Amino acid sequence: MLFKSKKKKRPIEIFKNIKKPHLEEAYVKFPGGKLKRVSEEREARAVSIDYFLIDKLRKKYGSKYMTLHTHHDGDFLPSSADLKKFLILDEVKASVIIPLENESNQPKGYFIMKKNRGYRFSAGDKQYLAETIQPYLEAIKQSDPSVVALRLKDVAKKYNFSYRLIPAEGYRLSDKIQGFRSSRQSLETKLIMASLIFICSSILLSLSNITGNIISESLHNSSNLLGISLFIMGLFFAGLMTYSINKLHIKKIAID
């Protein structure tokens, strides 16, 4: 008898199907292993980890692993607790924060921190960790992207780890450290501009035929054909823009 193999879920599908997405959710990923949920108690701005389960997984897959957890409201910056867990736990080689879209639960991107070769963190560092990351936390409160970027860079340089912002499909970086913006708005702006260019060009061409000197009948007919073609192209891009907006509106209604 043949058994149908269970289709493996992609990480993005797991994140989109989180129950109570306004609460943070935590996962771990071991080399060669699947994404495992390790949340115990979930809160809006924190999540406690089941380290007993992680210890069991370490015996099976090895000691090193990557942590992943979600943030609501599109907030991607690591909190004080996020930084401390990443820096103190030697077995954690990388940490990923997944900011989720409010309505669709769609990941907006990924903020990845990775310990470099020669990563430095000693028992003495642990004692002064709170003091070291305090300027970064103060910068977040000031909501100044350039200052946040500078302070986070200082922490990364001190402990020798790297970080990177990667936008998800349909999003783009709005600033070096500020966050993500939907790329849909950019596409709609391009469609509007294309529509206006074609329609205006067709109108100007028609006006030139009315007011200008017509050299020959064939040239006049060619100009008319070109004007009509440009007008049709303008209508096409206008329709494409309308379809794109309506599609987004229908999708939001379905989600609600």
Short account of what is shown:
Helix content is 50%, strand content 20%. β5, α3 and β6 form a beta-alpha-beta unit.
Structural class: alpha+beta
Helix and strand element order: HEEEEHEHEEHHHEEEHH
Mean pLDDT: 75
How many strands in all?
Answer: 10
Uncertain residue ranges: 1-5, 210-219, 244-256
Report the biggest beta sheet as strand number plus sense, adding barrel if it closes. 6 strands, mixed
User: What count of domains describes the coordinates?
Assistant: 2
Number of helices: 8
State which percent range the strand residues make up.
Answer: 15-25%
Rg from alpha-carbon coordinates: 27 Å
| Percent in helix | 40-55%
Structure in words:
The chain is of the alpha+beta class. It folds into two domains: 11-182, no CATH class; 185-255. It has eight helices and ten strands. It has a six-stranded mixed sheet with strand order 2-1-5-6-7-8, with helices on one face. Strands 3-4 form a two-stranded antiparallel sheet. The longest helix is centred in the last third of the chain and has 39 residues, at 217-255. The two termini are 43 Å apart. Mean pLDDT is 75; it is low at 1-5, 210-219 and 244-256.
